[in-house]
């Protein structure tokens, strides 16, 4: 596999699509500084997923998009694609060619493609794992990568070796597995929380769903009884409805008879009304027709007036046209006379102009001869003048050369003196630089010691930071554990609060009395009003026994009312303790034998409100608490079995000698739960306070961590700065040494120069004699030319005088000609203007004559129209009179019909009154029917609303044997009410919670198994990584020893793992000993030695695990020519298995290359790639 093709578009300095085809072997990319050749390696790094703008030599990622120039607009996106030849199927993807493409937009979006199919960067990274290809691998090596390999940062160094040893794939899988493990553990924690919460919900829901089932059973019984009661009432309503419907039918028939009479009268009324409407319609039509005739007559009058107006206008137009014809005829006669005069003037002017033209031509001929003679003389004068100028120039040049030679002679003498001084000064500088070298070496030793102190301080600060981080992690765990404890206590608290609110542990009758807030004088159950310390709970509970269920009341009346309530509702039996009756019955402990086992009276060991003292002392005042059963028996015997004795474990010794013991059933936690509620609340508050303290402590530790990190950062910066100073000092030493060498070369050059100055002086003196001879010859020739110029100047004056006289005559004639031409042109313009005006007047004359005839015809036609309009007016006036008479006749007929209509209206009103009386009776009956129907519908609707059944369905449920007595119904309803608040959803909720309980139980189990599997996978991956790394690292180390000797021509290099017990995280030490030198710290190596050491490591890695291609970006720049030669030779050997693309400006690397590409910048900020031959590449390097 190798890199076959690179396509760039819009990336950095490549705005247009640029394609570079690569072959196997070595390809060199050359070009001047700033031409954009390193942008090619940046393009490959970017397409392989580089996300750091700094690594791409920019400030932000969008800087890689072409920004534009003065002539080229900026681009909105860039695109880079690399094509890999995969014919050897190294990447098992089933393609012989694999193209990886990346596209980025200025808006920030970025996308990747694999063979033109969209993919993730993660997919590309996974495909290229363990191939060496990638932004973190060793397929792209620039000067920064060389620094990384040799840097003091172990992380950067490890990245290269991990990729080279083939464990990056395993490490990637391990990181994925660790992420999955963390995610699975987090899921398990969440599921544990949910599982505990569900378990806490399950028991209360079970009790609720039992109550809901009972409620549904009672409701179903009540439904049957209520349905039968409803059917009975519906049947009674239907019988009453039948009677009312019969009476309604009778009233309806009477109403129909009256309705028939009313219809007859209505018909007559309608017919009469129709006749009146017809007459009204005729009247309206006649009136409309009359109005139309009047309107037409008015229109005719207006039309006649309009025609008369048009006739007047036509006559006026005819008069105006006749006057205009007279004016046009007069104007045409005047224009004709003027035109004849102008034509005569034109002929005269043409004659004068012809005569002037003849005179001008004669003078022009004379002038031409004079001008030719003047030009010949001027040409000869110019030649002589040019020759004089050349002679003077030559003389000046010779004089200048002579001065220069004289100055050179003087300079040579001065230079000899200067060289002597320079040699003396340079020798002084050499001595001075030797002193500086000694001083710099002393400084280097001091900095080495400071570096050691800083690194020791760095290790100590790192240890301090780790301790703080561990402490911070422990606090975070404590906070998390406290939060878990709070959640646990809250869950338990909610359960006990719910039990307290629902009176769990009390008998049914006790619950009902305590729940019923309408019962007056109820103080609470005895178990509720006392507080018992936890160590006495068993003994007090045993001592109280059934008394815990007793209810305290204010008086016996309150107790009696509560008993009646229980009896009436059949809710069971309860013992009541009226506070006004029960008296204290407490032992006087002075009269009993108290031993060491005696703890106290039961009434003295608990807390209660003082108002309940008589009741508490009556029940517990004669009960003695002893520590254990043996001491209790002994105590009872000593006191003749007079008192009730109870042990801490709940065993009872009754008065008279009987014993009660065994396992004690906890009575619903009545005594303990109040205590537990308080305890849990206190614990929750304490934990919250503890969390707040931990947060404060964590904040302080975080502050210390930040300070320590800042200190560590400062130490690291100090180390870096010291490292830089060390490098600078080292560079200064080398600089002084180089300067000494350079100064010695300068002394040799100056002495050679001094020897050459003597022979140069003799040559200059000989040349000075020849120049003086040339100057004498130039002066002689100059005098001869001056005499010739005087003769020609006199001839020129004579011919110039004749020429000027003829020119004056010529100008006067020309002026006269121009004047006559202007007059001639003016006459022509006047002739054309008058001719045009006359033609226009003739056309207008013809138009006016035509208009006169048209107006006469129009006037005649309009007079005929007036006669027609007047005739039509007479006919319309006659129609108007006839229609007015017909309208009066219709109005009289309408009045007669209106009287008949009034009579019919009176009869109709009488019939309406009878009909209304019947309707009122019918309305009352129908109202009663509607009420009964509504009542029936209400019953049916109630059935549907309450039980969602129809009447037919209800009839099917009818049971005649059932007692539907209202008292029986009320008892059933009371029994349902006594159930209290019923959560019907609890049945489904319980099933749902149970399902969730089972589901999360299974999920918990699956997650626990998954954690085991992932942890096993991580262990196996670590073992594989160790084996793989150790094998490959040893290969690279052996290669490094060989390559180092080969490239350095001797010496020794070695790689070491510092921590053998942790090879996957251990730092890797590089030792280097150049030939003829002692083993050195890497920082003490020269720039060239460092570069060659890093190149040796790189070549060792490629030998151990060849990468398909490797891009080298000027990594050999610091090497001298001898090392460049060895570098090139070794590169050729490696190119058999690995394709190399080298961005370079070194001749030795180019000579090793099989192919060369040149990068130029013919246009500012735009790079262009050219295929070059070796000679062309060398020329570019020479330019650099």
UniProtKB/TrEMBL annotation:
Cellular component terms per the entry's GO annotation: chromosome; cytoplasm
Protein name from the UniProt record: Chromosome partition protein Smc
UniProt keyword annotations, A-Z: ATP-binding, Coiled coil, Cytoplasm, DNA-binding, Nucleotide-binding
Assembly: Homodimer.
HAMAP family named among the record's database cross-references: Smc_prok
Any one GO molecular-function label of the UniProt entry: DNA binding
UniProt-listed GO biological process terms: chromosome condensation; chromosome segregation; DNA replication; sister chromatid cohesion
Coiled coil (UniProt feature): 167-201, 227-254, 329-471, 677-851, 887-921, 990-1024
Taxonomic source organism: Romboutsia ilealis
SMART domains assigned: SMC_hinge
Record's comment describing the protein's domains: Contains large globular domains required for ATP hydrolysis at each terminus and a third globular domain forming a flexible hinge near the middle of the molecule. These domains are separated by coiled-coil structures.
């Amino acid at each position: 596999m190798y890199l076959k093709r690179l396509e760039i578009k819009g990336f950095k300095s490549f705005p247009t699509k640029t394609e570079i085809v690569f072959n196997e072997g070595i390809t060199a990319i050359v070009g001047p500084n700033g031409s954009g050749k390193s942008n090619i390696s940046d393009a490959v790094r970017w397409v392989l997923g580089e996300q750091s703008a700094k690594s791409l030599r920019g400030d932000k990622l969008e800087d890689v998009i072409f920004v534009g120039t003065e002539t080229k607009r900026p681009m909105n996106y860039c695109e880079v694609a690399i094509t890999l030849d995969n014919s050897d199927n190294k990447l098992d993807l089933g393609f012989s060619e694999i193209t990886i493409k990346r596209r980025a937009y200025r808006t920030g979006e970025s996308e990747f493609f694999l063979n033109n199919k969209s993919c993730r960067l993660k997919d590309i990274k996974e495909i290229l794992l363990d191939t060496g290809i990638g932004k973190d691998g060793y397929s792209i090596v620039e000067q920064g990568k060389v620094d990384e390999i040799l840097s003091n940062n172990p992380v950067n160094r490890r990245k290269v070796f991990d990729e080279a040893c083939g464990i990056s794939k395993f490490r990637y899988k391990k990181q994925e597995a660790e992420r999955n493990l963390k995610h699975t553990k987090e899921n398990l924690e969440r599921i544990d929380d949910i599982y505990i919460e569900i378990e806490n919900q399950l028991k209360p829901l079970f009790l609720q769903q039992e109550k809901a089932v009972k409620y549904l059973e009672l409701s179903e019984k009540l439904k049957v009884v209520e349905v039968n009661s409803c059917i009975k009432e519906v049947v009674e309503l239907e019988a009453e409805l039948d009677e009312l419907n019969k009476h309604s039918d009778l009233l309806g028939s009477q109403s129909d008879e009256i309705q028939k009479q009313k219809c007859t009268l209505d018909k007559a009324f309608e017919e009469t009304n129709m006749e009146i409407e017809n007459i009204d319609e005729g009247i309206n039509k006649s009136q409309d027709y009359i109005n139309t005739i009047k309107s037409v007559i008015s229109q005719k009058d207006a039309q006649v007036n309009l025609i008369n107006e048009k006739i007047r206008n036509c006559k006026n137009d005819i008069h105006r046209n006749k006057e205009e014809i007279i004016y046009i005829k007069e104007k045409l006669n005047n224009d004709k006379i003027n035109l004849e005069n102008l034509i005569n003037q034109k002929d005269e002017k043409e004659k004068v102009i012809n005569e002037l033209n003849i005179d001008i031509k004669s003078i022009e001929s004379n002038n031409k001869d004079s001008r030719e003679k003047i030009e010949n003389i001027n040409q000869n004068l110019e030649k002589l003048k040019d020759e004089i100028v050349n002679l003077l120039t030559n003389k000046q040049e010779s004089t200048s050369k002579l001065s220069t030679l004289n100055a050179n002679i003087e300079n040579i003498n001065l230079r000899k003196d200067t060289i002597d001084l320079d040699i003396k000064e340079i020798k002084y500088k050499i001595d001075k630089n030797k002193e500086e070298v000694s001083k710099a070496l002393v400084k280097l030793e001091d900095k080495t010691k400071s570096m050691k102190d800083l690194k020791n301080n760095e290790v100590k600060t790192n240890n301090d930071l780790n301790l703080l981080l561990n402490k911070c992690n422990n606090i975070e765990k404590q906070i998390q554990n406290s939060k878990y404890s709070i959640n646990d206590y809250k869950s338990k608290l909610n359960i006990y609060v719910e039990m307290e609110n629902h009176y769990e542990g009390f008998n049914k009758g006790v619950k009902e009395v305590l729940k019923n807030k309408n019962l007056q004088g109820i103080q609470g159950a005895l178990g509720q009003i006392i507080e018992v310390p936890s160590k006495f709970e068993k003994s007090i509970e045993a001592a109280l026994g059934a008394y815990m269920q007793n209810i305290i009341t204010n008086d016996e009346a309150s107790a009696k009312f509560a008993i009646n309530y229980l009896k009436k509702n059949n809710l069971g039996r309860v013992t009541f303790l009226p506070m006004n009756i029960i008296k204290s019955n407490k032992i006087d402990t002075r009269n009993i034998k108290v031993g060491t086992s005696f703890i106290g009276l039961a009434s003295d060991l608990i807390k209660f409100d003082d108002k309940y003292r008589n009741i508490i002392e009556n029940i517990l005042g004669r009960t003695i608490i002893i520590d254990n059963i043996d001491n209790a028996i002994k105590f009872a015997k000593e006191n003749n079995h007079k008192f009730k004795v109870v042990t801490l474990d709940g065993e009872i010794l009754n008065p008279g000698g009987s014993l009660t013991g065994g396992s004690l059933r906890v009575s619903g936690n009545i005594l303990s739960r109040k205590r537990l509620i308080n305890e849990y609340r206190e614990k929750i508050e304490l934990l919250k306070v503890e969390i707040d303290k931990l947060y404060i402590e964590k904040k302080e530790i975080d502050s210390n961590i930040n300070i320590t990190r800042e200190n560590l950062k400062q130490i690291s910066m100090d180390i870096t700065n010291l490292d830089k100073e060390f490098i600078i000092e080292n560079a200064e030493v080398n600089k002084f040494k180089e300067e000494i060498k350079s100064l010695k070369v300068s002394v040799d050059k100056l002495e050679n120069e001094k020897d050459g100055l003597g022979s140069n002086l003799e040559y200059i003196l000989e040349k000075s004699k020849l120049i003086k001879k040339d100057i004498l010859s130039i002066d002689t020739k100059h005098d001869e030319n001056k005499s010739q110029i005087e003769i020609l100047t006199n001839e020129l004056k004579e011919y110039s005088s004749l020429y000027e006289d003829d020119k004056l005559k010529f100008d006067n004639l020309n002026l006269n000609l121009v004047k006559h031409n202007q007059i001639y042109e003016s006459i022509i313009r006047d002739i054309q203007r008058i001719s045009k005006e006359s033609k226009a007047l003739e056309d207008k004359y013809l138009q006016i004559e035509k208009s006169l005839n048209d107006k006469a015809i129009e006037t005649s036609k309009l007079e005929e129209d007036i006669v027609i309009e007047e005739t039509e007016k007479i006919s319309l006036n006659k129609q108007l009179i006839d229609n007015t008479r017909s309208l009066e006749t219709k109005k009289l007929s309408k009045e007669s019909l209106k009287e008949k209509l009034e009579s019919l209206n009176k009869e109709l009103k009488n019939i309406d009154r009878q009909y209304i009386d019947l309707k009122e009776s019918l309305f009352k009956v129908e109202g009663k029917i509607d009420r009964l129907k509504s009542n029936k519908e209400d019953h049916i609707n109630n059935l549907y609303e309450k039980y969602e059944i129809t009447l037919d369905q209800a009839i099917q449920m009818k049971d005649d044997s059932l007692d539907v007595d209202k008292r029986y119904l009320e008892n059933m309803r009371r029994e349902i009410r006594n159930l209290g608040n019923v959560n019907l959803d609890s049945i489904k909720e319980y099933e749902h919670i149970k399902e969730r309980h089972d589901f999360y139980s299974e999920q918990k189990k699956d997650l626990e198994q998954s954690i085991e599997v992932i942890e096993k996978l991580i262990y196996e991956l670590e073992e594989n990584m160790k084996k793989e790394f150790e094998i490959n690292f040893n290969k690279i180390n052996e290669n490094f020893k060989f390559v180092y000797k080969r490239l350095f021509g001797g010496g020794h290099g070695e790689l070491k793992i510092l921590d053998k017990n942790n090879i996957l995280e251990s730092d890797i030490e590089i030792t280097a000993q150049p030939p003829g030198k002692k083993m050195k710290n890497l920082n003490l190596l020269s720039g060239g030695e460092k570069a060659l050491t890093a190149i040796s490591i790189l070549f060792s890695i490629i030998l151990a695990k060849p990468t398909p291609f490797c891009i080298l970006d000027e990594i050999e720049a610091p090497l001298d020519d001898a090392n460049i030669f060895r570098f090139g030779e070794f590169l050729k050997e490696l190119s058999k298995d690995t394709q190399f693309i080298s961005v370079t400006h070194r001749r030795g690397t180019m000579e090793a290359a099989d192919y060369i590409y040149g990068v130029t910048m013919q246009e500012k900020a735009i790079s262009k790639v050219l295929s070059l031959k070796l000679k062309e590449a060398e020329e570019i390097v020479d330019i650099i």
